[in-house]
Predict the structure of Cation acetate symporter.
Amino acid sequence: MNQLPQFSGSGTPLATVLPPFPHTQPSVDGSHHNLAVVLFALVVVMTLAITLWVGRRGQAAEDFYTGGRDFGPFQNGIALSGDYLSAASFLGVTGLIALYGYDGMLYSIGFLVAWLVVLMWVAELVRNTGRYTLADVLATRMRQRPVRAAAGTASVVVTLLYLIAQMVGAGSLVALLLGTTGAAAKTWTIVAVGGLMIIYVTVGGMRATTWIQIVKALMLMTGAVLLTAWVLVRFHFNLADLMQTAAHGSPAGDRYLEPGLLYGESTTSRLDFVSLGMALVLGTAGLPHILSRFYTVPTARAARRSVIWAIGMVGCFYLMTVVLGLGATALVGARAVKTANPAGNTAVPLLALNLGGGEGSTGGTLFFAVTSAIAFATILAVVAGLTLASSVSFAHDLYAQAFRSRNKLPVTERQEVVMARIAAVLIGGLAIVLSLYAQRLNVAFLVSLAFAVAASANLPTLVYNLFWRRFTTRGACWATYGGLVPALVLVFFSPVVSGARTAMFPGVDFHWFPLENPGLVSIPLGFLLGWIGTVSGEEKADPDKFAELEVRSLTGAGAV
């Protein structure tokens, strides 16, 4: 998550869970910020150079949407892990572990287990049956206009929510790392990140976005390996000593290593954790920017091998976040981490500062700046992938199919690509505006909401379409809207929006839904309404189309 909850799972103010602790907050001098600015500029120049170089190659729809389908499994696996490992993973999950110990580690487990769902249910089958988007998979056996309207709308909503979360996190994070927390700095950071992501997508398309993801993933893994190795060396590779020191570094003491510090003190908090877990584990298989990655490889076998490579990298990374989170608590202290940033987002930079020699040292300055630059590169790469996914869904599904009048000529590939570029500008601009107004919102809520909506709206239609012979167009629409709308409504009437001190509108209280994440209700509801919509309608599924889809999904015969 990009921002951590400031209340415990029971609703108790965090100050009562984490009492005062003698660690002091590390300060950051101007040399750190100056070096960070230089490294940020190098990251921007490098990514822009990649975009301009790659953007000259190929202007057809297949090049813009899928990068020509000529990436290998290893390359695509690295890019997949790059798409998935956002600043929420590098900074947010580590911060969760630093502040909440055992309960924070559960986030790492949820994010990792999600890839098993992707491997078993999604990767190969989606690659065989689709072309560019999730709606392509549905359209192989459904009426195109309604399913493309539903799937395209859900995809745009999911990516926009995820995009806003990343950009709000970028505003807070980069402004803090550059030495200022003023509103103007956050605003200009959001505008700058938004402008860069528009350039990446409109100029380079999927090919440039993929190479940026590869570079970013390698930078992220290298930085994480170095920091993890340094922490282990400090504790002589004795994990027991690391855990005991971390427990002493946390005001919670031994409770830091036990369940229940964040979740588990009430029935509501336990249900909230189950809801969040369902969203994280099931939502990955419905994220549009993850699904679009399976079309960048030439075959379904390559798609499956890509996921295997991604699982390996993601698994190693989340194991390292455990060490980094424990190291931050042991060496910096939970109190200092929370003082520097209540959400814990600066745990990794502060750990890097400590490992490099502390405040004022050359090593500390270098480590702090490099870590900051890696976080910035992570944000740039993820927002580019999200913008591309949403613009492709808008152009390919909504503009070219769902909203196109039957009396007009079909849209050409060139027109689609032009509209996708225009959509990238419009969606990027909308994300910038919404992010500016959302700077005070809980970013963790936005990220988890994106996962919940993806699991509620996209996953039921995908699973039913691939495995249920009787599934119909009506059922697909009911499943999509039946998961999308309740998820949004339940969040609006949850404690995240009103009725709590950390809510969007803390001065009012109109909430009646007790959980912060709607997944526990909206995910089963999406599956249920998909079934009801199918069995209650007069429409009958075409057995021949399902047979064709089944053969194509399992064998790859006829795949693009």
